[in-house]
């Protein structure tokens, strides 16, 4: 079917606008990557936009050679893995339990969960609660408060309710107990939705800097995003280099005179962003499938 000139012109305008939008989203990442791979003293002169003018890896050597950053990186990885696993487990168990219509006080429990999703007690009561639970300055302050998400639970509940009841009833007639039903029927069918929720939860844990900034005062417990937030407000590069022993260790094979605070900041941003960008393509197909299934069954 031959399209008219107006249709072709409209399609061209749409494609041009989409390409412009994509470039506006990608350009900041390309700019930070170019500055992080460029000699800092040269990048400070300006003119570095899409690719490095004087290529170097000194900025990444300083970032990856910093003991504090490496430890913060492990804290972030540990909290992301543990927080995602615990969050998915709690979400799945809560949604499965509330999916039984015969559950006593089911409506009351759902109403209570809904209220917690719509209203919050505020930051100060939350801080006091964390203090009373002895979670402040603890690794578990990253895991326990975020173990349950009302929104994730309702999404998972809606998905489980969309599973044909005949499957569950036939298993129960064969003598399967609830945990057997969960393991043999609900869990295999819920993998796409769990992957989508797991991606949301993992990205939330990886990008969270708030908990480390306000609920943790020990430097050896801060995640890399909190360190990045501290670095972005730093006034000199000593905040990155640390002690004299650390400076000597980093300076081996690195020209510190060509490094600036801005170039190190860009390298830190790259180090904190690239891992989650590398994981996303492997989960994208599960993510799309889970979102589509959830929207259809909703």
Automatic annotation (TrEMBL):
InterPro entries noted in UniProt: MetI-like, MetI-like_sf
Primary localisation category: membrane
GO BP term, example: transmembrane transport
Classification via SUPFAM superfamilies: MetI-like
Annotated keywords: Cell membrane, Membrane, Transmembrane, Transmembrane helix, Transport
Compartments where located: Cell membrane
Domain ABC transmembrane type-1: 73-271
Membrane association type: Multi-pass membrane protein
Transmembrane segments: 12-34, 72-97, 109-128, 140-160, 181-206, 262-283
Cellular-component GO terms for this entry: plasma membrane
Domain of life where this protein originates: Bacteria
Protein family membership: Belongs to the binding-protein-dependent transport system permease family.
Protein name per its UniProtKB record: Carbohydrate ABC transporter permease
Originating organism: Paenibacillus lycopersici
High-level lineage: Bacteria, Bacillati, Bacillota, Bacilli, Bacillales
């Amino acid at each position: 079917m031959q399209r008219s000139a107006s249709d072709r012109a409209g399609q061209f305008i749409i494609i041009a606008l989409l390409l412009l939008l994509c470039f506006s989203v990608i350009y900041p990442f390309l700019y930070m990557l170019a500055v992080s791979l460029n000699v800092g003293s040269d990048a400070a002169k300006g003119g570095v936009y899409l690719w490095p003018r004087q290529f170097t890896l000194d900025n990444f050597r300083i970032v990856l050679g910093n003991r504090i950053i490496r430890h913060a990186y492990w804290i972030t990885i540990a909290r992301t893995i543990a927080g995602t696993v615990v969050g998915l487990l709690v979400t799945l168990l809560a949604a499965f339990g509330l999916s039984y219509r015969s559950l006593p006080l089911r409506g009351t429990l759902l109403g209570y969960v809904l209220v917690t999703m719509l209203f919050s007690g505020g930051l100060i009561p939350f801080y006091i609660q964390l203090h009373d639970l002895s979670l402040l300055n603890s690794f578990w302050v990253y895991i326990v408060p975020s173990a349950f998400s009302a929104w994730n639970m309702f999404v998972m509940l809606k998905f489980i309710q969309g599973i044909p009841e005949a499957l569950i009833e036939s298993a129960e007639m064969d003598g399967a107990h609830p945990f057997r039903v969960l393991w043999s029927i609900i869990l295999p069918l819920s993998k796409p939705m769990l992957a989508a929720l797991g991606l949301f939860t993992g990205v939330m844990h990886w990008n969270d800097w708030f908990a480390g900034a306000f609920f943790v005062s020990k430097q050896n417990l801060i995640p890399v995003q909190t360190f990045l937030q501290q670095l972005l407000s730093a006034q000199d590069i000593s905040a990155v280099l640390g002690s004299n022993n650390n400076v000597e260790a980093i300076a081996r094979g690195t020209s510190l005179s060509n490094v600036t605070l801005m170039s190190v900041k860009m390298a830190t941003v790259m180090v904190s962003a690239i891992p989650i960008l590398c994981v996303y393509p492997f989960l994208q197909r599960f993510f799309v499938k889970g979102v589509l299934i959830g929207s259809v069954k909703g």
